[in-house]
Amino acid sequence: MVKAGKKGMSSAEAMQKMGAKDALVKIKNLECGLSCTAAYYDMKELKAGFPKTMASGETRVLKQNRGSQGEGIWVCKLAEEEDHGRCLS
Questions:
Q1: What is the model's pLDDT at position 49?
Q2: Which pLDDT score is estimated for 48?
Q3: Taking the CB of residue 54, how many other CB atoms lie within 10 A of it?
Q4: How many Cα atoms within 13 Å fall on the side-chain side of residue 20?
Q5: 47 φ, ψ to 5°?
Q6: CA-to-CA distance for 33 and 23, rounded, in angstroms?
Q7: What is the Cα–Cα distance from 50 to 74, expressed in whole angstroms?
Q8: Residue 40: Cβ within 10 Å count
Q9: Helix, strand or coil, per DSSP, at residue 43
Q10: Tell me, what's the pLDDT at 89?
Q11: Which residues, 6+ apart, have CB-to-CB distance to 36 below 8 Å?
C-alpha cells in the first residue's frame, strides 16, 4: 500500500511512543483527527474545560483514563435549554 502512495499505519515503535490513551489528542490536528478532541487530566481541568465544549451543543464523548473493554465511556449531550446537560452511559 505504501509503495502505491497510500498512507499506512505508523510503525509499532511510533504507536508505542504515542500512548494509547492520548493517541486521539496527539493526532487531533492531523488529517485523520478531530480538532475538537481534548484531554482533561484532573477534575479542575474537567470542570473548566468540559462545559465550554458542551456549549457548542454537539454530542461529546467522555472516556476515563483506564480500561480498554468499553467500560467508563459516556455519551453526553445537552438535554433541554434549561438543563445543564446529561450523560447517557
A1: 92
A2: 94
A3: 16
A4: 6
A5: -65, -30
A6: 10
A7: 13
A8: 15
A9: helix
A10: 47
A11: 28, 53, 56, 58
Report helix, strand or coil for 71: coil
User: Grid cell 457548542 — which residue?
Assistant: 56
- E strand or H helix at 52: helix 43-54
Element holding 14 (H helix, E strand): helix 12-18
According to DSSP, residue 3 is labeled: G
Grid cell of 30 as nine digits = 492531523
Mean pLDDT of successive 10-residue stretches along the chain, which has 89 residues: 64 63 83 87 92 88 73 82 52
| Distance linking the first and last C-alpha atoms of the chain | 38
Strand ranges (DSSP E) for 1-78? 60-63, 73-77
DSSP 26: H
- What are 22's three cell numbers? 492520548
